């Protein structure tokens, strides 16, 4: 028998794991309403045609790409960052295989076994999976549900020690849909500067913002003297997650040795997909009509989600301000939110992801909703949730 390495023992990914049970039920004839995976293409969104045309035109490009990425793609990322107010050059940009590879490389280039990186709780599980794989130490700070899921700065400060290597921000946040205020971001930047730490800023959903009185602030524009690694991708804003085109870029001071280490990892994996990188320039510099349409559609679905969830006894939800996720709280007498969501799936058919898969405060229970699904699917899912709660907890 081949024994797997110890580094894989604690790696879980609840977002995908719940699908296994759903597929078993579906084979038995159960109708499943999938509200679990953050892929808008699984619902009624489509990749913009001008991006598809750019890839099709260059599909013959079958050789390795430059390890740092296609020059025109890096230049487009650089120009957008500068337009937003971040001081970088095209040489600060590395194209990555989706945002996930950039996150993995950034963590791998800074962390030794036993080190830690501050990650949000709740947060996107990839970060902790990579940290576990590299024999790092979990070090999670809380997001404050009573304060619109903003980072708890006091808790963050308590968690920093001599083994801490970086602070991670996910903004807009997955799984809560929170959008961080400028004041909150400045406090995090000040804390990072105080301890000589870089900020890892995951800005994957930066163009999916719902309310005019809430504004997205790129961390790189606020942190002039603090080192920042910004992650982004075409996947969500530009509706092509399967193309696996993302990037990271370095800003702030003191990044020379570290950025070279990340680039060395990029060289070691040779390159990312060549033809798909030709979509970056038309995406970032071309028509943006689909974003207005997408955000309008998602805002209507956000409003349905917020209203319906808060109308169910024992369920409450902070209003999401960005991305397409909600993280409702379960205030019912339950054994665990994993059992709650799995029992709900078996009885009524809606598939959510249990809150413990993202992390949460002790003695609280949540689940994540993806409201990119159609209005009909959302209402079907919330109807099933309401019936389940009334039947089992009424």
Summarize it:
The chain has 394 residues and is an alpha/beta fold.
General description of the model:
The protein has 394 residues and is of the alpha/beta class. Helices cover 39% and strands 15% of the residues. The strands form four sheets. It has an eight-stranded mixed beta sheet, sandwiched between helices. Strands 11-15-14 form a three-stranded antiparallel beta sheet. A two-stranded parallel sheet has the order 1-13. Helix 5 links the parallel strand 3 (116-121) and strand 4. Helix 4 crosses helix 5 (125-133) and helix 11 runs parallel beside helix 13. The termini are far apart.
Which key terms come to mind for this protein?
single chain, 394 residues, alpha/beta, Aspartate Aminotransferase, domain 2, 3-stranded antiparallel β-sheet, 13 helices
List the helices and strands and how they pair.
Blueprint lengths: L13 H14 L5 E2 L14 H9 L13 H14 L8 E4 L1 H11 L7 E6 L3 H9 L3 E8 L5 E2 L1 H7 L4 E7 L11 H14 L3 E4 L16 H4 L5 E6 L12 E6 L4 H13 L11 H6 L3 H22 L4 E2 L8 E2 L2 E2 L6 H12 L1 E2 L1 E2 L12 E4 L4 H19 L1
Parallel strand pairs: 1-13, 3-4, 3-6, 6-7, 7-8
Antiparallel strand pairs: 2-9, 4-5, 8-9, 10-12, 11-15, 14-15
Helix pairs in contact: 4-5, 11-13
First-last Cα distance: 50 Å
The structure class reads alpha/beta
The pLDDT mean sits at: 95
Multimer state: single chain
Q: What is the fold-level CATH name, i.e. the topology of the largest domain?
A: Aspartate Aminotransferase, domain 2
Report on the biggest sheet: 8 strands, mixed
Q: What's the helix count?
A: 13
Architecture of the largest domain, according to CATH? Answer: 3-Layer(aba) Sandwich
Q: Largest sheet, order of strands side by side?
A: 2-9-8-7-6-3-4-5
From the spread of the alpha carbons, the general shape counts as globular
- CATH top level assignment of the largest domain: Alpha Beta
Indicate the radius of gyration in whole angstroms. Answer: 21 Å
User: Helicity range of the residues?
Assistant: 25-40%
Number of strands: 15
Question: CATH superfamily assignment of the largest domain?
Answer: Type I PLP-dependent aspartate aminotransferase-like (Major domain)
Q: Beta-strand percentage?
A: 5-15%
Give the number of domains: 2
Order of helices and strands: HEHHEHEHEEHEHEHEEHHHEEEHEEEH
Low-confidence stretches at least 5 residues in length (pLDDT < 50)?
none
């Amino acid at each position: 028998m081949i024994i797997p390495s110890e580094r894989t023992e604690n790696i879980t990914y609840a977002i995908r794991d719940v699908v296994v049970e759903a597929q078993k039920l579906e084979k038995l004839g159960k109708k499943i309403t999938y509200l679990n995976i953050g892929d808008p293409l699984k619902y009624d969104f489509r990749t913009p045609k001008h991006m598809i045309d750019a890839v099709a035109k260059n599909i013959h490009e079958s050789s390795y790409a430059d390890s740092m990425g296609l020059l025109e793609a890096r230049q487009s990322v650089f120009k957008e960052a500068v337009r937003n107010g971040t001081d970088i050059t095209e040489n600060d940009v590395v194209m990555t295989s989706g945002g996930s590879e950039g996150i993995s490389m950034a963590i791998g280039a800074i962390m030794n076994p036993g080190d830690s990186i501050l990650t949000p709780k709740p947060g996107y599980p990839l970060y902790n999976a990579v940290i576990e794989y590299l024999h790092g130490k979990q070090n999670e700070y809380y997001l404050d549900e009573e304060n619109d899921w903003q980072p708890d700065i006091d808790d963050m400060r308590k968690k920093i020690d001599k083994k801490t290597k970086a602070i991670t921000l996910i903004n807009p946040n997955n799984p809560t849909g929170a959008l961080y205020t400028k004041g909150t971001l400045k406090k995090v930047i000040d804390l990072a500067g105080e301890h000589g730490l870089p900020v890892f800023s995951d800005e994957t959903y930066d163009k999916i913002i719902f309310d005019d009185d809430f504004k997205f602030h790129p961390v790189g524009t606020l942190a002039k003297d603090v080192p920042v690694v910004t992650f982004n991708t075409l996947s969500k804003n530009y509706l092509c997650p399967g193309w696996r085109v993302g990037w990271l870029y370095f800003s702030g001071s003191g990044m020379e040795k570290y950025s070279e280490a990340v680039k060395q990892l990029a060289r070691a994996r040779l390159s990312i997909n060549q033809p798909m990188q030709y979509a970056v320039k038309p995406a970032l510099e071309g028509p943006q009509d689909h974003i207005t349409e997408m955000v309008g559609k998602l805002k209507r679905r956000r409003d349905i989600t917020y209203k319906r969830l808060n109308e169910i006894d024992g369920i409450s939800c902070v209003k999401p301000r960005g991305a397409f996720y909600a993280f409702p709280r379960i205030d019912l007498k339950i054994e665990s939110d994993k059992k709650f969501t799995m029992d709900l799936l078996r009885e009524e058919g809606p598939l959510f992801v249990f809150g413990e898969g993202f992390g949460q405060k002790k003695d609280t229970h949540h689940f994540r909703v993806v409201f990119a699904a159609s209005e009909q699917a959302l209402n079907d899912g919330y109807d099933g949730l309401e019936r389940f709660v009334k039947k089992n907890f009424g």
